[in-house]
């Protein structure tokens, strides 16, 4: 069998089963997941690149057997097909649900070609090679079938040994049929998945068409020409003018925001300055009153200085126990060097001459009186 011939590849690509999005409640998403560095290193192979399967008849497994679990060398082969244009999270979630349908699942993904897609659905954004490559790099995919058929035939199901077909349960009307999966459902091979609401390739294309001018200007800024964008010369100039106007608006908006921030900072600073000024003014007034007020330190200093000044200029009274003139010891005599007792006493100078006296103390007068006697 194909699964047995490529068992080594399947074992290396075996993934731990994770609960689907429908099995996980929003309240349980807070549970932490252990870190793991083990991951796939190669894209999923194409079906025509694998070795041919065993020629034994292929026996499908029932739904009960698939849910109960199959041997490792006999995984349940689930097929999911689609266009997968502009591959997004909705595609990845659908493939994840298909991979998690059973404990042991080998997921085969069929991608339709450009010819079939353009014929039955419409023009695609990505070509078939880009879409093939996008699907091969999805972690849930084990095998990719290129140029998948629009309607699944028994021959195709037998060739790829498909057990179940996974798709959302909404009837898919196309190619003149109300539901292209009707015969698959009747055969009991249909495994429904849930469609992710809020995102689809059509929604993405609608956004681009709705905001075409925005995306055209975006690509012009990145170096694309109007010719590459299939735009006219006038539109290119219009977009360039709009871009300049938007730049001016952004600059004005930035200046307004900066000016608001500056004014806010100035207000905060001014409030701080006013508060500090009030605090300092109160402190200054208190110090001023403490120094120059009615009972301030300056008044006490003046009173104290005035008392000291009066005390300095007023005469001192002699102490009561001070000795009298007679009791005082004689003052020392000082004579000029050129006057002595042997020399004749000079005649006294007139008082107005201003001459200095010879005798310095009263003792000298007493000595003179003794000599005369």
UniProtKB/TrEMBL annotation:
Composition-biased stretches (Acidic residues): 361-373
Keyword presence, Oxidoreductase: no
Record pathway: Phospholipid metabolism; phosphatidylcholine biosynthesis; phosphatidylcholine from phosphocholine: step 1/2; Lipid metabolism
Catalyzed reactions per annotation: phosphocholine + CTP + H(+) = CDP-choline + diphosphate
Keywords, in A-Z order: Coiled coil, Lipid biosynthesis, Lipid metabolism, Nucleotidyltransferase, Phospholipid biosynthesis, Phospholipid metabolism, Transferase
MF (Gene Ontology): choline-phosphate cytidylyltransferase activity; phosphatidylcholine binding
Region (Disordered) residue spans: 1-28, 313-373
Biased composition (Basic and acidic residues): 317-329
Pfam families for this protein: CTP_transf_like (PF01467)
Matching Gene3D superfamilies: HUPs
InterPro entries given in the database record: CCT, Cyt_trans-like, Pcy1-like, Rossmann-like_a/b/a_fold
GO cellular component: endoplasmic reticulum
Positions in coiled-coil regions: 238-265
All copies of domain Cytidyltransferase-like, residue ranges: 79-207
Function: Catalyzes the key rate-limiting step in the CDP-choline pathway for phosphatidylcholine biosynthesis.
PANTHER family: CHOLINE-PHOSPHATE CYTIDYLYLTRANSFERASE A, CYTIDYLYLTRANSFERASE
Family: Belongs to the cytidylyltransferase family.
Name of this chain's protein: choline-phosphate cytidylyltransferase
